Amino acid sequence: MTQRDPASIPVLSLDLIRADSEVVRQCDWIDQRAALPFTDDLEQSAESYLPDEGLLVAVNMAVALGVPLLITGEPGCGKTQLAYWIAFKLDLGTPIRYQVKSTSKASELLYDYDTVAYFSAAYEKSSDQQPLDRARFLRRGPLWQALESDRPRVVLIDEIDKAPRDFPNDLLRELAEAGFDVPETGQHVEGDRRVRPIVVITSNSERPLPAPFLRRCIYRHLELDPATIRRVVTMRRREFPGLSDDFLRLAVERFLELRKKNLRRKPGTSELLVWLRVLELAGEERLGRLEGLPYAGALLKDHHDLGDLG
Prior knowledge:
310 residues, 2 domains
């Protein structure tokens, strides 16, 4: 899908709905509804990523040793972007990304076998003496795709802390040996060790990871510090054509001041980008110096924090 230039996207007023106004006809506003142009184009942003020296050392260790790189840190600190930066710097193409969910199974990284489709096909073919080709019902997962590649691929296992408890340990052998068995077909999948994948694993540290898994990783924690936040805003500058550079700097400083407070849930870069879009819709000429932190609901997601802000 073609991405529209942010400057060409119609702006919808933040005062559209009022308690004392009449019903607003759909035809009067639907075409003016703002579309948040937040594409999170990680490939496009990879060139601008700037790792610190400690992170660079960790990346080089993981690549040289062929062991997984585990990156932790709060949302928005650049964990996922790092995998795309590694792929960009080593000219390895787009990373093969696996987004972990609470229902994820480690086997999905290897392959998925459609048992229902197999038995359905077997039932329909019951009168035929020829056996079914079980390989037809296999879907190769990210690790299998990487092992079959003729060049190293970056495999991103994103937000592993969302997975069930046994998920990390279920991958120990497969990640260590860069190979696995497929019992359904009797195959053994193993890639050329010279082109074994570069595995990047991210975690928001919502739950601890098991010690056996940690022992097999190179580890680095990323801080969401002011320099990182300013870098993210600079990378996404074109998404806020209606904000001047001075106002954008002011907004970032107000955001950093907010993060220094004793909050129950600190806002991250995702909240910051949405807030900047809201400020753009509101118009900087009516917002002044941002005293009182207008539209704080875009930043704070805890009612106690909002109440303390006053």
